[in-house]
Amino acid sequence: MEPNQLDLFNSAQLTSRKRRPDVPLMSADALVRWKTQIAAHQQRARENQPVQQVALFDLAPQHCDPEQIDPLTLRLDTLSFFERPGQDLGEPCIYFVVDTTPKLILYVGETVHSNQRWRGTHDAKRYINQYISLHRQYQLDVAICISFWWDAPSATQSRQALEKQLILKWQSPFNKENWKRWGQPFG
Known about the structure:
This protein is an alpha+beta fold.
């Protein structure tokens, strides 16, 4: 640099970027409060089934009624379900990522190929890993599982509409639709 030229940037800042210290995403108390608020909402959603309108004529029941789908009563599986030998592409489904220790629905998703959706990159996998890591850091119980609802429509638009209804009903915190309400501490 020329002797009379002004230095707009500190050369030390340009040559070495300091790494931010690892700061926990939230305190243990904040994590417990966050989970408690979500669990309280989800428990209310389970208990407060909407009033069913009485029909004058017998109508066929809605095949995919989101009010009849309770992720906490479905069979649980591990997040590595897709690694089992002999698995095919899988089937269309709605799936739920659940922390079974407080019975908390963390994520609602849909897929046309249940065994392929979790093989690659998925933002929810990153959130889950950070969630688990924070629990382990504070020595809090955590048990992440996945459950599937296999009666999902095979038509993509119908399946996505059902997924959206379930996301809004359960207010699952890892779905972007609910970040405004719960924040995005693991994103």
